[in-house]
Structure formats: structure tokens, C-alpha cells
Amino acid sequence: MTDVLALLQSHRSIRRFRPDPLPDGLLETIVRCGQQAASSSNIQAYRIINVTDASLRDTLAELAGQQEYVRLAPVFLVFCADLRRAQKVCDRIGPPFVPGMTEHFIIATVDTALCGQNCVVAAESQGLGCCYIGAVRNHPAEISALLALPEQVYPLFGLCIGYPDQTVEVKPRLPLGAVLQENRYSEEHDAELIAEYDATMQAYYGSRSDHRKDSSWSREIAALAGREARPHMAAFLKERGFLLR
């Protein structure tokens, strides 16, 4: 196993950080690593906002579910899917920009996610910890206004980065057989694989050093998928010029 394989399999979300700042130039190096992620047709449809203003951080933390680590992490980035740049290129050299295409939305969203994951791997390789903040989508219109995001841009997720001030166990993942299959989709062994994973997660939740609870993967997923999730997003995205056709 190479160091890269070990690093990827040791990922944990870090939510408590030491106050130490990143060394000069390291954030820029991390973002350059993000830029080297695969990009559909090299469109690079993302923009990253480094939020350094303390009052702005306070407001973002409140809008993102009162998550203190948004306030306290040495670095907080907002990753935005950005088709505005492509729109401006079309305005400059033609042909006219075609707004609202679902495929373009998927491309921008995937590009942004790939860039973010490269940034996380780069940061973790330097001893830093990270935590994705999907809760920036709790109030996307308000956050867009705060960050002056124009149409054809939307906030996809935040990212806290800093030196860890906690020890966190690696969260077990689904058995490989539940996700890796050959030639075609099959649910044949899902019931037993999920039962096995539920037992693993029940033990993990009950023994971890921070925030112990009595639960399982199935119970957590039923609580998540058994309710509406950010129903405001469809209307918000259409208002921003996405998902019109």
C-alpha cells in the first residue's frame, strides 16, 4: 500500500481545530491541487471564495446551522459551481450562451465536487484536517447575496480546513460488495451486506470517543431519506438560471 492509498483510507471529518494559521502559500498550493482535478471539457466550472472576514464568518455559521467550526476553523472556503465564466466567454466570442441546460448544471456540480475533493486530499497530505459543510445550501439565496454571487453561480458546499484539535476514528464504509459489482446492477446480496454494515456501525457509534449514540446505518439513512431535504433548492436553482431544460 502506498502512502496515497493509506491517506485516502484514513479520511475523517475534523470539527475542532487548533488556532494555528496555515503556512504562507499552503492554501494556494492546496487550491492549485484542486484545479488539477479532472474537468469536463476543461471548463473548470467552479469558483472558490476564501472567507476571512470574521463578521461574515459569523453570519455564514448562523445560516449553516450554527456550526461553530465555520467560525473557528483557520480557513473556511465556499465552493461555488460557476457557469458565469463560460457565459462571459460566449458573450465575448460567441455563439450565444445557452442557459438552463441540465447537462451544464451537472458538469459544473461535478467539476466543483472533484476540485473540492482534490483540495481535501492535498490538505490532509500536509497534516491538516477538513470538514465539508453541505449546510451552506440551507439558505443558498442569503449566502449568494452575502458573497455577491451572480446568476449562473450557486454555493455547493463549504470546507473548513485547519490543524486538528481532536482525535477522530475513521468511520467504516459499506462492504465493498455493496458498491463494486461486475457487468450489471444487482441487489441480490444487499440485505445481508447491509445487516453486516448495520452491526459494524452500531458498534462504531457506541464506542467512538466523541458523540456516542445508539444507532445504525439503516436508521440514519431512513431518517435522512424519509423526509424532505432542502425543498427550496429547486426553485432557488431555477432563479439562478439553472435546470430550466
From TrEMBL:
It holds the Pfam family Nitroreductase. Signal peptide: none annotated. One of its GO terms (molecular function) is oxidoreductase activity. Keywords: Flavoprotein, FMN, NADP, Oxidoreductase. It is an enzyme of class 1 (oxidoreductase). Residues 9-163 form the Nitroreductase domain. Its EC number is 1.-.-.-. InterPro entries: Flavin_OxRdtase_Frp (IPR016446), Nitroreductase (IPR029479), Nitroreductase-like (IPR000415). Belongs to the flavin oxidoreductase frp family. This is Oxygen-insensitive NADPH nitroreductase.
